[in-house]
Amino acid sequence: MAECGTSVQVVDGVTGGPPEVENAIKEYKTFDDMPLKEALLRGIYAHGFEQPSQIQQKAIVPIAEGRDLLAQAQSGTGKTGAFSIGSLCRIDPTLFQPQVLVLAPTRELADQIKKVAEALSSFMNIQIYGATGGTPVREDIRAIERGAQFIVGTPGRIYDLMHRGVLMRDNIRVLILDEADQMLEDRFKEQVFCILQMGFPQQTRIALFSATMPPDVIDVANRVLNDPVRILIPPDQVTLDGISQFYVDLEREDWKYEALCDIYKQLNINQAIIYCNKRQRAEWLAAKMKDEGFTLECIHGDMEVGERKSRMDDFRKGVVRVLISTDLLARGIDVQQVSLVINFELPVQKENYIHRIGRSGRYGRKGVAINLVTPDEMAKIRDIEKYYSTTINILPNTINEIIL
To answer: S-S: 97 plus which of 171, 222, 259, 300, CB 3.0-4.6 Å?
Structure first.
Protein backbone atom coordinates (compact mmCIF):
# COMPACT_ATOMS: atom_id res chain seq x y z
CA MET A 1 0.00 0.00 0.00
CA ALA A 2 1.14 3.52 -0.75
CA GLU A 3 2.05 5.53 2.29
CA CYS A 4 -0.52 8.08 3.39
CA GLY A 5 -0.43 10.79 5.98
CA THR A 6 -2.84 10.90 8.87
CA SER A 7 -4.24 14.39 8.46
CA VAL A 8 -7.97 14.36 9.09
CA GLN A 9 -8.84 17.22 6.76
CA VAL A 10 -9.30 14.71 3.99
CA VAL A 11 -12.71 14.98 2.36
CA ASP A 12 -13.35 17.66 -0.23
CA GLY A 13 -15.61 20.25 1.28
CA VAL A 14 -16.02 18.34 4.54
CA THR A 15 -14.17 20.01 7.37
CA GLY A 16 -14.51 19.70 11.08
CA GLY A 17 -16.65 21.52 13.56
CA PRO A 18 -18.07 20.89 17.02
CA PRO A 19 -20.75 18.18 17.05
CA GLU A 20 -24.29 19.28 17.57
CA VAL A 21 -25.99 18.79 20.92
CA GLU A 22 -27.85 15.49 21.09
CA ASN A 23 -30.99 16.93 22.67
CA ALA A 24 -31.93 18.39 19.27
CA ILE A 25 -32.35 14.93 17.73
CA LYS A 26 -35.91 13.96 16.83
CA GLU A 27 -36.99 10.40 17.59
CA TYR A 28 -39.31 8.44 15.31
CA LYS A 29 -41.24 5.75 17.15
CA THR A 30 -42.37 3.86 14.05
CA PHE A 31 -40.93 3.27 10.60
CA ASP A 32 -44.14 4.65 9.11
CA ASP A 33 -43.44 8.00 10.79
CA MET A 34 -40.11 8.26 8.95
CA PRO A 35 -39.88 9.78 5.44
CA LEU A 36 -39.18 6.40 3.81
CA LYS A 37 -40.18 5.21 0.35
CA GLU A 38 -42.87 2.55 0.12
CA ALA A 39 -40.52 0.00 -1.46
CA LEU A 40 -38.05 0.41 1.41
CA LEU A 41 -40.81 0.11 4.01
CA ARG A 42 -41.90 -3.16 2.40
CA GLY A 43 -38.34 -4.47 2.68
CA ILE A 44 -38.09 -3.39 6.33
CA TYR A 45 -41.25 -5.22 7.35
CA ALA A 46 -40.49 -8.25 5.16
CA HIS A 47 -37.11 -8.54 6.92
CA GLY A 48 -38.94 -8.86 10.23
CA PHE A 49 -38.41 -5.38 11.66
CA GLU A 50 -41.57 -4.23 13.43
CA GLN A 51 -40.60 -1.21 15.53
CA PRO A 52 -37.35 0.77 15.26
CA SER A 53 -34.82 0.29 18.04
CA GLN A 54 -33.56 3.32 19.95
CA ILE A 55 -30.60 3.90 17.65
CA GLN A 56 -32.83 3.45 14.61
CA GLN A 57 -35.32 5.97 16.00
CA LYS A 58 -32.57 8.60 16.13
CA ALA A 59 -30.11 7.73 13.34
CA ILE A 60 -32.08 6.71 10.24
CA VAL A 61 -33.61 10.06 9.36
CA PRO A 62 -30.45 12.20 9.78
CA ILE A 63 -28.61 9.92 7.31
CA ALA A 64 -31.60 9.93 4.97
CA GLU A 65 -31.71 13.73 5.11
CA GLY A 66 -28.02 14.08 4.30
CA ARG A 67 -26.40 14.78 7.67
CA ASP A 68 -23.05 13.62 9.00
CA LEU A 69 -23.43 11.38 12.03
CA LEU A 70 -21.43 10.17 15.03
CA ALA A 71 -23.50 7.37 16.53
CA GLN A 72 -23.04 5.00 19.43
CA ALA A 73 -25.34 2.24 20.62
CA GLN A 74 -25.04 -0.96 22.61
CA SER A 75 -24.18 -4.13 20.72
CA GLY A 76 -27.15 -5.97 19.29
CA THR A 77 -29.48 -2.97 19.15
CA GLY A 78 -29.79 -2.48 15.42
CA LYS A 79 -26.87 -0.31 14.22
CA THR A 80 -26.59 -2.17 10.91
CA GLY A 81 -30.28 -1.67 10.24
CA ALA A 82 -29.98 2.00 11.14
CA PHE A 83 -27.24 2.92 8.71
CA SER A 84 -28.48 0.55 5.99
CA ILE A 85 -31.98 2.01 5.98
CA GLY A 86 -30.70 5.59 6.15
CA SER A 87 -28.22 4.99 3.32
CA LEU A 88 -30.71 3.21 1.08
CA CYS A 89 -32.85 6.35 1.21
CA ARG A 90 -30.07 8.26 -0.54
CA ILE A 91 -29.74 5.90 -3.53
CA ASP A 92 -31.07 6.74 -6.98
CA PRO A 93 -32.06 3.33 -8.45
CA THR A 94 -31.69 4.66 -12.00
CA LEU A 95 -28.02 5.63 -11.49
CA PHE A 96 -25.82 2.56 -11.88
CA GLN A 97 -22.79 3.93 -10.03
CA PRO A 98 -21.46 3.44 -6.46
CA GLN A 99 -23.56 5.67 -4.21
CA VAL A 100 -23.13 4.14 -0.74
CA LEU A 101 -19.82 2.84 0.61
CA VAL A 102 -19.67 0.95 3.92
CA LEU A 103 -16.32 0.07 5.49
CA ALA A 104 -16.16 -2.79 8.01
CA PRO A 105 -13.11 -4.30 9.78
CA THR A 106 -13.69 -7.98 8.93
CA ARG A 107 -14.93 -10.03 6.01
CA GLU A 108 -17.54 -11.67 8.23
CA LEU A 109 -19.02 -8.36 9.33
CA ALA A 110 -18.98 -6.98 5.77
CA ASP A 111 -20.82 -10.09 4.55
CA GLN A 112 -23.41 -9.72 7.28
CA ILE A 113 -24.02 -6.04 6.45
CA LYS A 114 -24.38 -6.96 2.78
CA LYS A 115 -27.06 -9.55 3.59
CA VAL A 116 -29.01 -7.09 5.75
CA ALA A 117 -28.85 -4.42 3.02
CA GLU A 118 -29.97 -6.96 0.41
CA ALA A 119 -32.96 -7.95 2.52
CA LEU A 120 -33.98 -4.36 3.28
CA SER A 121 -33.69 -3.33 -0.38
CA SER A 122 -35.38 -6.42 -1.82
CA PHE A 123 -38.22 -4.33 -3.34
CA MET A 124 -36.06 -1.41 -4.49
CA ASN A 125 -34.24 -2.87 -7.52
CA ILE A 126 -30.84 -1.86 -6.11
CA GLN A 127 -27.55 -3.68 -6.63
CA ILE A 128 -25.70 -4.52 -3.38
CA TYR A 129 -22.14 -5.86 -3.50
CA GLY A 130 -19.51 -7.01 -1.01
CA ALA A 131 -15.82 -6.37 -1.77
CA THR A 132 -13.45 -8.06 0.66
CA GLY A 133 -10.01 -9.63 0.66
CA GLY A 134 -9.55 -13.26 -0.26
CA THR A 135 -11.68 -13.15 -3.41
CA PRO A 136 -10.51 -12.37 -6.98
CA VAL A 137 -10.33 -8.64 -7.70
CA ARG A 138 -11.72 -9.28 -11.17
CA GLU A 139 -15.07 -10.25 -9.59
CA ASP A 140 -15.20 -6.88 -7.84
CA ILE A 141 -14.34 -5.07 -11.07
CA ARG A 142 -17.11 -6.84 -12.97
CA ALA A 143 -19.67 -6.10 -10.25
CA ILE A 144 -18.80 -2.40 -10.20
CA GLU A 145 -18.88 -2.24 -14.00
CA ARG A 146 -22.32 -3.87 -13.94
CA GLY A 147 -23.57 -1.01 -11.76
CA ALA A 148 -23.18 -1.89 -8.07
CA GLN A 149 -24.79 0.96 -6.10
CA PHE A 150 -24.34 -0.07 -2.44
CA ILE A 151 -20.85 -1.43 -1.74
CA VAL A 152 -19.71 -3.00 1.54
CA GLY A 153 -16.05 -3.80 1.96
CA THR A 154 -12.95 -4.12 4.10
CA PRO A 155 -10.45 -1.21 3.98
CA GLY A 156 -7.64 -3.04 2.17
CA ARG A 157 -9.80 -4.20 -0.74
CA ILE A 158 -11.69 -0.91 -1.03
CA TYR A 159 -8.43 1.06 -1.16
CA ASP A 160 -7.11 -1.32 -3.83
CA LEU A 161 -10.21 -0.80 -5.99
CA MET A 162 -9.95 2.97 -5.60
CA HIS A 163 -6.22 2.96 -6.34
CA ARG A 164 -6.84 0.97 -9.54
CA GLY A 165 -9.37 3.60 -10.64
CA VAL A 166 -12.21 1.05 -10.58
CA LEU A 167 -14.25 2.33 -7.64
CA MET A 168 -15.05 5.93 -8.54
CA ARG A 169 -16.23 8.34 -5.86
CA ASP A 170 -18.05 10.87 -8.04
CA ASN A 171 -21.53 9.73 -7.02
CA ILE A 172 -20.92 8.44 -3.48
CA ARG A 173 -23.48 10.09 -1.24
CA VAL A 174 -22.93 8.19 2.01
CA LEU A 175 -19.71 6.82 3.53
CA ILE A 176 -20.20 4.61 6.61
CA LEU A 177 -17.45 3.49 8.99
CA ASP A 178 -18.85 0.63 11.04
CA GLU A 179 -17.02 -0.26 14.26
CA ALA A 180 -15.38 3.15 13.98
CA ASP A 181 -13.21 2.77 17.07
CA GLN A 182 -11.55 -0.32 15.62
CA MET A 183 -11.31 1.25 12.16
CA LEU A 184 -9.33 4.17 13.58
CA GLU A 185 -6.90 1.98 15.57
CA ASP A 186 -3.40 1.16 14.32
CA ARG A 187 -4.38 -1.93 12.32
CA PHE A 188 -6.78 -0.11 9.98
CA LYS A 189 -6.04 3.57 10.56
CA GLU A 190 -3.59 4.02 7.68
CA GLN A 191 -5.87 2.25 5.22
CA VAL A 192 -8.90 4.29 6.31
CA PHE A 193 -7.05 7.59 6.02
CA CYS A 194 -5.66 6.56 2.62
CA ILE A 195 -9.25 6.01 1.47
CA LEU A 196 -10.39 9.36 2.85
CA GLN A 197 -7.45 11.21 1.35
CA MET A 198 -8.31 10.01 -2.14
CA GLY A 199 -11.09 12.59 -2.03
CA PHE A 200 -14.86 12.47 -2.01
CA PRO A 201 -17.32 14.96 -3.54
CA GLN A 202 -19.04 17.75 -1.67
CA GLN A 203 -22.27 15.73 -1.48
CA THR A 204 -20.67 12.84 0.44
CA ARG A 205 -21.87 12.57 4.00
CA ILE A 206 -20.02 10.48 6.59
CA ALA A 207 -21.43 8.40 9.45
CA LEU A 208 -19.36 6.70 12.15
CA PHE A 209 -20.97 3.88 14.14
CA SER A 210 -19.73 1.83 17.11
CA ALA A 211 -20.73 0.45 20.48
CA THR A 212 -17.75 2.20 22.11
CA MET A 213 -16.32 5.63 21.35
CA PRO A 214 -13.01 6.30 23.17
CA PRO A 215 -12.07 10.00 23.46
CA ASP A 216 -9.35 9.83 20.80
CA VAL A 217 -11.85 8.49 18.25
CA ILE A 218 -14.34 11.21 19.11
CA ASP A 219 -11.57 13.76 18.62
CA VAL A 220 -10.78 12.42 15.15
CA ALA A 221 -14.47 12.25 14.29
CA ASN A 222 -15.01 15.85 15.32
CA ARG A 223 -12.39 16.93 12.82
CA VAL A 224 -13.56 14.67 9.98
CA LEU A 225 -17.31 15.20 10.27
CA ASN A 226 -19.14 18.32 9.14
CA ASP A 227 -21.68 19.61 11.70
CA PRO A 228 -22.63 16.06 12.70
CA VAL A 229 -25.67 14.79 14.51
CA ARG A 230 -24.18 13.28 17.65
CA ILE A 231 -25.63 10.24 19.42
CA LEU A 232 -23.32 9.26 22.28
CA ILE A 233 -23.91 7.43 25.53
CA PRO A 234 -21.72 7.42 28.67
CA PRO A 235 -19.77 4.22 29.51
CA ASP A 236 -22.07 3.41 32.44
CA GLN A 237 -24.94 2.96 29.98
CA VAL A 238 -23.07 0.79 27.48
CA THR A 239 -23.37 -2.60 29.21
CA LEU A 240 -26.24 -4.75 28.12
CA ASP A 241 -29.13 -5.06 30.54
CA GLY A 242 -30.21 -8.46 29.22
CA ILE A 243 -26.84 -10.15 29.75
CA SER A 244 -26.00 -11.75 33.10
CA GLN A 245 -22.26 -11.50 33.79
CA PHE A 246 -20.27 -13.93 35.95
CA TYR A 247 -16.68 -14.84 36.68
CA VAL A 248 -15.01 -18.03 37.87
CA ASP A 249 -12.16 -17.39 40.33
CA LEU A 250 -9.32 -19.80 39.53
CA GLU A 251 -5.99 -20.00 41.33
CA ARG A 252 -3.98 -21.08 38.28
CA GLU A 253 -4.08 -20.55 34.51
CA ASP A 254 -3.88 -24.29 33.81
CA TRP A 255 -7.13 -24.83 35.74
CA LYS A 256 -9.11 -22.93 33.11
CA TYR A 257 -9.51 -25.88 30.79
CA GLU A 258 -11.15 -28.13 33.40
CA ALA A 259 -13.37 -25.25 34.52
CA LEU A 260 -14.47 -24.66 30.92
CA CYS A 261 -15.30 -28.33 30.38
CA ASP A 262 -17.25 -28.40 33.64
CA ILE A 263 -19.32 -25.37 32.60
CA TYR A 264 -19.86 -26.80 29.15
CA LYS A 265 -21.18 -30.10 30.55
CA GLN A 266 -23.54 -28.52 33.08
CA LEU A 267 -25.22 -25.93 30.88
CA ASN A 268 -27.84 -26.65 28.24
CA ILE A 269 -26.18 -24.55 25.54
CA ASN A 270 -28.03 -23.52 22.41
CA GLN A 271 -25.10 -21.77 20.74
CA ALA A 272 -21.99 -20.30 22.35
CA ILE A 273 -18.77 -18.47 21.53
CA ILE A 274 -15.57 -19.04 23.51
CA TYR A 275 -12.97 -16.27 23.21
CA CYS A 276 -9.18 -16.49 23.31
CA ASN A 277 -6.77 -13.64 22.67
CA LYS A 278 -4.46 -15.33 20.17
CA ARG A 279 -4.80 -17.71 17.25
CA GLN A 280 -2.45 -20.28 18.76
CA ARG A 281 -4.45 -20.44 22.00
CA ALA A 282 -7.74 -20.77 20.12
CA GLU A 283 -6.39 -23.61 17.97
CA TRP A 284 -4.90 -25.39 21.00
CA LEU A 285 -8.17 -25.17 22.91
CA ALA A 286 -10.26 -26.37 19.97
CA ALA A 287 -7.97 -29.35 19.34
CA LYS A 288 -7.92 -30.32 23.01
CA MET A 289 -11.72 -30.18 23.33
CA LYS A 290 -12.25 -32.06 20.07
CA ASP A 291 -9.91 -34.81 21.28
CA GLU A 292 -12.23 -35.25 24.26
CA GLY A 293 -15.31 -35.56 22.11
CA PHE A 294 -16.70 -32.03 22.11
CA THR A 295 -18.36 -30.90 18.88
CA LEU A 296 -17.12 -27.43 17.99
CA GLU A 297 -15.06 -25.38 15.54
CA CYS A 298 -12.37 -22.72 15.68
CA ILE A 299 -12.16 -19.50 13.65
CA HIS A 300 -9.55 -16.74 13.43
CA GLY A 301 -8.26 -14.09 11.06
CA ASP A 302 -5.27 -16.07 9.73
CA MET A 303 -7.52 -18.80 8.36
CA GLU A 304 -8.14 -19.15 4.61
CA VAL A 305 -11.16 -17.12 3.53
CA GLY A 306 -13.07 -20.13 2.20
CA GLU A 307 -12.58 -22.05 5.43
CA ARG A 308 -13.61 -19.05 7.54
CA LYS A 309 -16.76 -18.61 5.47
CA SER A 310 -17.63 -22.32 5.68
CA ARG A 311 -17.24 -22.42 9.47
CA MET A 312 -19.16 -19.16 9.92
CA ASP A 313 -21.99 -20.46 7.70
CA ASP A 314 -22.15 -23.70 9.70
CA PHE A 315 -22.36 -21.67 12.91
CA ARG A 316 -25.12 -19.44 11.55
CA LYS A 317 -27.11 -22.49 10.43
CA GLY A 318 -26.68 -24.20 13.80
CA VAL A 319 -24.70 -27.10 12.34
CA VAL A 320 -21.93 -26.05 14.73
CA ARG A 321 -23.18 -25.01 18.15
CA VAL A 322 -19.94 -23.81 19.73
CA LEU A 323 -17.27 -21.64 18.14
CA ILE A 324 -13.85 -20.86 19.61
CA SER A 325 -12.70 -17.49 18.30
CA THR A 326 -10.23 -14.68 18.59
CA ASP A 327 -11.53 -11.10 18.56
CA LEU A 328 -12.29 -11.62 14.87
CA LEU A 329 -15.85 -12.27 16.05
CA ALA A 330 -15.93 -9.77 18.89
CA ARG A 331 -17.66 -7.11 16.84
CA GLY A 332 -20.88 -6.97 14.95
CA ILE A 333 -21.47 -10.64 14.19
CA ASP A 334 -25.18 -11.28 14.62
CA VAL A 335 -26.09 -14.92 15.29
CA GLN A 336 -29.46 -14.77 16.98
CA GLN A 337 -29.24 -18.08 18.84
CA VAL A 338 -26.00 -17.31 20.70
CA SER A 339 -26.98 -17.35 24.37
CA LEU A 340 -23.59 -17.83 26.03
CA VAL A 341 -20.20 -16.14 25.73
CA ILE A 342 -17.20 -17.51 27.64
CA ASN A 343 -14.02 -15.48 27.94
CA PHE A 344 -11.33 -18.13 28.30
CA GLU A 345 -9.05 -15.10 28.46
CA LEU A 346 -10.10 -11.53 29.19
CA PRO A 347 -9.59 -9.22 26.20
CA VAL A 348 -6.47 -7.09 26.08
CA GLN A 349 -8.56 -3.96 25.49
CA LYS A 350 -11.46 -3.45 27.87
CA GLU A 351 -13.64 -2.02 25.07
CA ASN A 352 -13.63 -5.45 23.44
CA TYR A 353 -15.25 -6.91 26.55
CA ILE A 354 -18.52 -5.21 25.65
CA HIS A 355 -18.22 -6.26 22.03
CA ARG A 356 -17.58 -9.87 23.03
CA ILE A 357 -20.42 -10.29 25.49
CA GLY A 358 -22.69 -8.46 23.05
CA ARG A 359 -22.61 -11.53 20.81
CA SER A 360 -25.21 -12.96 23.20
CA GLY A 361 -28.40 -11.16 24.08
CA ARG A 362 -28.90 -9.84 20.55
CA TYR A 363 -31.63 -7.22 20.11
CA GLY A 364 -33.09 -7.48 23.59
CA ARG A 365 -32.75 -11.23 24.09
CA LYS A 366 -31.34 -12.71 27.31
CA GLY A 367 -27.74 -13.84 27.40
CA VAL A 368 -25.00 -14.99 29.75
CA ALA A 369 -21.29 -14.08 29.87
CA ILE A 370 -18.82 -16.14 31.95
CA ASN A 371 -15.23 -15.05 32.51
CA LEU A 372 -12.48 -17.47 33.58
CA VAL A 373 -10.22 -15.40 35.82
CA THR A 374 -6.91 -16.00 37.59
CA PRO A 375 -5.67 -13.77 40.45
CA ASP A 376 -3.58 -11.81 37.94
CA GLU A 377 -6.76 -10.96 36.00
CA MET A 378 -8.95 -9.88 38.89
CA ALA A 379 -7.75 -6.30 38.61
CA LYS A 380 -8.93 -6.25 35.00
CA ILE A 381 -12.38 -7.52 36.03
CA ARG A 382 -12.64 -4.73 38.61
CA ASP A 383 -11.50 -2.20 36.02
CA ILE A 384 -14.21 -3.36 33.62
CA GLU A 385 -16.83 -3.13 36.38
CA LYS A 386 -15.76 0.39 37.28
CA TYR A 387 -15.47 1.66 33.71
CA TYR A 388 -18.88 0.38 32.66
CA SER A 389 -20.60 0.79 36.06
CA THR A 390 -21.63 -2.84 35.95
CA THR A 391 -21.46 -5.85 38.26
CA ILE A 392 -19.80 -9.14 37.38
CA ASN A 393 -20.86 -11.71 39.98
CA ILE A 394 -19.04 -14.86 40.99
CA LEU A 395 -20.53 -17.87 39.21
CA PRO A 396 -22.86 -19.76 41.58
CA ASN A 397 -22.37 -23.45 42.27
CA THR A 398 -25.83 -24.19 40.88
CA ILE A 399 -24.90 -23.07 37.39
CA ASN A 400 -27.35 -25.52 35.80
CA GLU A 401 -30.09 -23.16 36.99
CA ILE A 402 -28.77 -20.30 34.88
CA ILE A 403 -31.24 -19.52 32.12
CA LEU A 404 -29.66 -19.32 28.68
So the answer is: 171
